[in-house]
Amino acid sequence: MINVTNVSKKFESESVLNNISLHVNRGSIYGLLGSNGAGKTTLLKMIAGIFKQDQGSVLVNEAIVFENPSIKEGIIFIPDVLYFFSQYTVKQMASYYKDFYPNWNQDRFDKMQLILNLDINKKIQRFSKGMQRQVAFWLALCAMPQLLILDEPFDGLDPVIRQKIKNLIIQDVAEREMTVIISSHNLREVEDICDYVGILHQGTFILEKDLDDLKSDIHKVQLAFKGEMPAVLLTEVELLYQEKRGSVILFIVRGQEHEIDRIITKYKPVVYDLLPLTLEEIFIYEMGDAGYAIENILV
Amino acid sequence: MGTSQNENGNIYFNCIIYISTADTVARGDGMFDLDLRSRKPIYEQLVDKLKELIINDVLQEDEKLPSVRTLAQQLTINPNTIQKAYRELETQGYIYSIKGKGSFVNKSSKTDNTEELKKMKEELKKLIAEALFIGVSEADLYSLIDEVKVLGGGGYPND
After folding, report:
1. Is the Cβ of B53 closer than 8 Å to some Cβ of chain A?
2. Does domain A217-296 have CATH number 2.60.40?
3. Cα→Cα distances A298→A33, A81, B134, Å
4. What pTM does this model have?
5. Rounded distance, CA A97 to CA A250, Å?
6. Does the structural domain A2-209 have CATH classification 3.40.1130.10?
7. Which listed residue, A163, A217, A259, B111, has the most CB atoms within 10 A of its CB?
8. Domain segments of chain A: what residues?
9. How many angstroms separate the CA of residue A292 from the nearest CA in chain B?
């Protein structure tokens, strides 16, 4: 669905993206993560066909997206800062969208009004921040896009609406294979709905992986032995990190659960816990491994 | 049960009791909940949960599993994750799928609870070790077992 190949982008002399590649399959929900200023928004705007890359190619549905209205008819981009025409009501804004998006679904628009319970004759700018965001999603989902690009989408939404919106997105992914890219610096926010994540840092990808693989490939182990820890243990597992807290030893180990389990139980520890890592922890250790300090990654 | 350490460098044990809020399994429509905040990958949770339902006969032989679409919507999780879990269950022989019709519970699939047994034994071992440490006697443990049996646990008929 999306093919970004060797793309670089500079704003004046400042290099924002360095030779990055990204591939997103149809029907996938891709989580784009990274610190502020990592280049997330720039990348999203290029995929939406708003910015032009300096080098490389950006293809959506195997066509160049920049200045290509027929491709853009199937793309909706919700930016982090929303924009609506001043004085426009929801109804007027909807008819404006209808002119641009040929797949506009009026039936769905009417149905969603019942769910969101917002007055379509009220000026959008008189709505609260969260309500404006709901309007943005409302319009976006009624345009029936093939590709939905969301930049920090859940800011300012209350938990109930957040869940409703996620649910609506998932419906579209399940029913008509809509593709979604979500950028966020809040790892918890994307952990439940993404199937693939990429972490962008200072204009390059540090990591790109299937989220479940990522989680099942790295584990936290807490151990304590009656006497000294057998030193050979260290050579048998792929260690990312170790720490000693009193007599309890903490390991971060890469590998499959049963394999680690097999090795460690051999040495008969008196205390033994094996836990998968949270997405947050994975970032911390994977980054540490790549030589990045955590302060730069997590906000 | 895990171990942690406080500021003074003393190790203390904390036994975490997982109270499942997901025990409300409504028979037939396949409704259950997952812990989205858990460390465990969602697809693994899904595989385990469905296995449990199949092993305990909540989902019976040849019963149709909820479609990927329905489940995705009910649980608000990614359809690809559910697809993956179904594929995994199929490889493990718990379910079979018919093209265009969906996934169904396989026949002889309710034998394998060795993993469960192993886990349970490990948990018990830890608890017993702890109990012995704080001064519970062996005889106490035996009488506890008898007590539990009387209450009708463990499937021992008491007549």
Report:
1. no
2. no
3. 10, 21, 42
4. 0.74
5. 55
6. no
7. A217
8. 2-209, 217-296
9. 23
